[in-house]
């Protein structure tokens, strides 16, 4: 299918995207894509190097007549979120992404597409390779590990970059210009517990919550989408309270920055309670599906008999776990008082793994206000510590404070209006962009973020608009032509 993709316009961008998507590039395992990018830069004869943590920098001189313009740093991240449908057979460590065209969209077969942030990477590669595009001196910064900790941006030392202006190509609405973003922190709760033997004569069931939309835990958190971990916990709580069902295993969600789409639990209950439990389960499932019909039309909540497990949780631990997960806030916590319609603070209960005497809960808390981020993380700490968990905080990264007086913002606003005959939306986003981190070591770097329209990022429904990529490419070329001296 990559042959079809390579025929799309602008071919320079889509060919580089196809090349990039042939290289496995999971977060924390970027060795192959780093070498791919180093080879690319060196093949063009440009200054190309890797910094101490694995970020790749490539510099291209200005074209004739643009030597006096300010140097532009073009920045995108090399890694991608790896998510696939439960029934999709795919190895992200060894296979390239399988793409196809559906109307105005490019999608992947049952997996994430990697348009986040592969479209930005491909665009920068096309600019570096071109011999016909007018531009000032360019500095390409390809960071690593943006999706699971932003350690590439955090590890970039001061003094490495030479640019005056930074264009971050990592947002997902082509009529928006971003000037700020949320920071984030990982909240992880763990504990061990004593198991007990399964009840005598008990019947085992497998409960599944699947078919949810999923998506980006920042950009999509306000949409009222279902969280498989929270929905599963609701069912388990009701079953535990009324029928004293016993939990053997829970396995829900995966990545912290993806809204959980699936959860599976193995439970046991007394044979005498089975018929009533099945009836109530259907009522509970139907009620949840009715509540979420507008946002989760494909949700499935199923119950089927399973092989009896060897052991289950003790009732005391089970009760405290279910109550703490019920208490743990998920979704929007506060809206911004400064920017209309902007989510200020949120949490994603991203991962719940229970079994073999161990509990692991992973959350990602985001906020554009540091004190609010601390407030919500403290609330989560309190909930999980009451359940006997040891809670740790990690991966703390800052937000990007908006600068409405940015000089490069004025350039983008003016050029957008000139090219597209309408005003752009100047916004801040609830996602984590690397600009806030980069600004710590490069406080004088004038930064802006924009990108093509991408839907369903961080889920197998991820797709990028073909016409939007054309718009994005045209806008980028126009920006580079109008960079000031």
Automatic annotation (TrEMBL):
GO cellular component: cytosol
The enzyme's E.C. designation: 3.4.13.18
Cofactor (UniProt): Co(2+); Zn(2+)
CDD domains with a match to the protein in the record: M20_pepD (cd03890)
Signal peptide limits: none
Keyword annotations from UniProtKB, A to Z: Cobalt, Hydrolase, Metal-binding, Metalloprotease, Protease, Zinc
GO molecular function: metal ion binding; metallodipeptidase activity
Catalytic activity: Hydrolysis of dipeptides, preferentially hydrophobic dipeptides including prolyl amino acids
One Pfam family of this chain: Peptidase_M20
Single biological process term from Gene Ontology: proteolysis
Domain Peptidase M20 dimerisation residues, every copy: 208-293
Keyword Metal-binding among UniProt keywords: yes
Family recorded in the similarity comment: Belongs to the peptidase M20C family.
Name recorded for this polypeptide: Cytosol non-specific dipeptidase
Biological source species: Cellulophaga algicola (strain DSM 14237 / IC166 / ACAM 630)
């Amino acid at each position: 299918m990559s042959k079809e993709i390579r025929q799309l316009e602008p071919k320079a961008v889509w060919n580089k995207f196809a090349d990039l998507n042939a290289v496995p590039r999971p977060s924390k395992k970027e060795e192959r894509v780093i070498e791919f990018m180093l080879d690319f830069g060196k093949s063009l004869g440009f200054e190309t190097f890797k910094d101490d943590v694995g970020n790749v920098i490539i510099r291209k001189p200005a074209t004739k007549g643009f030597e006096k313009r300010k140097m532009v740093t073009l920045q995108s991240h090399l890694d991608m979120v790896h998510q696939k449908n439960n029934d999709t057979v795919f190895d992200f460590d060894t296979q390239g992404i399988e793409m196809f065209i559906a109307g105005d969209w490019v999608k992947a077969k049952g997996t994430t597409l990697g348009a986040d942030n592969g479209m930005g990477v491909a665009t920068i590669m096309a600019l570096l390779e071109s011999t016909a595009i007018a531009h000032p001196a360019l500095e390409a910064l390809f960071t690593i590990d943006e999706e699971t900790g932003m350690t590439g941006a955090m590890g970039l030392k001061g003094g490495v970059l030479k640019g005056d202006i930074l264009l971050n190509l990592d947002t997902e609405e082509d009529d928006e210009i971003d000037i700020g973003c949320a920071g984030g922190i990982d909240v992880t709760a763990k504990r061990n517990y004593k198991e007990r033997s399964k009840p005598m004569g008990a019947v085992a069931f497998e409960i599944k919550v699947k078919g949810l939309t999923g998506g980006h835990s920042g950009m999509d958190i306000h949409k009222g989408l279902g969280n498989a971990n929270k929905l599963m916990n609701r069912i388990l709580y009701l079953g535990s309270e009324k029928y004293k069902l016993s939990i053997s295993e829970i396995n829900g969600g995966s990545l912290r920055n993806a809204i959980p789409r699936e959860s599976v639990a193995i439970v046991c209950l007394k044979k005498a309670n089975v018929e009533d439990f099945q009836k109530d389960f259907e009522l509970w499932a139907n009620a949840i599906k009715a509540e979420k019909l507008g946002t989760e039309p494909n949700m499935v909540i199923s119950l089927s008999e399973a092989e009896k497990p060897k052991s289950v949780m003790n009732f005391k631990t089970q009760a405290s776990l279910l109550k703490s997960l019920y208490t743990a806030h998920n979704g929007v916590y506060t809206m911004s008082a400064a920017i209309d319609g902007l989510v200020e603070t949120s949490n994603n209960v991203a991962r719940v793994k229970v079994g073999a005497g161990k509990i692991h809960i992973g959350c990602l808390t985001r906020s554009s206000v540091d004190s609010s981020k601390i407030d919500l993380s403290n609330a989560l700490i309190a909930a999980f510590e009451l359940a006997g968990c040891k809670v740790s905080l990690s991966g703390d990264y800052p937000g990007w404070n908006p600068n409405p007086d940015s000089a490069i913002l004025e350039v983008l606003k003016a050029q957008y209006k000139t090219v597209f005959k309408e005003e752009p939306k100047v916004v801040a986003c609830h996602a984590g962009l690397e600009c806030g981190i980069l600004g710590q070591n490069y406080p004088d770097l004038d930064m802006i973020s924009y990108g093509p329209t991408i839907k369903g990022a961080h889920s197998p429904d991820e797709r990028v608009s073909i016409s939007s990529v054309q718009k994005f490419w045209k806008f980028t070329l126009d920006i580079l032509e109008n960079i000031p001296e």
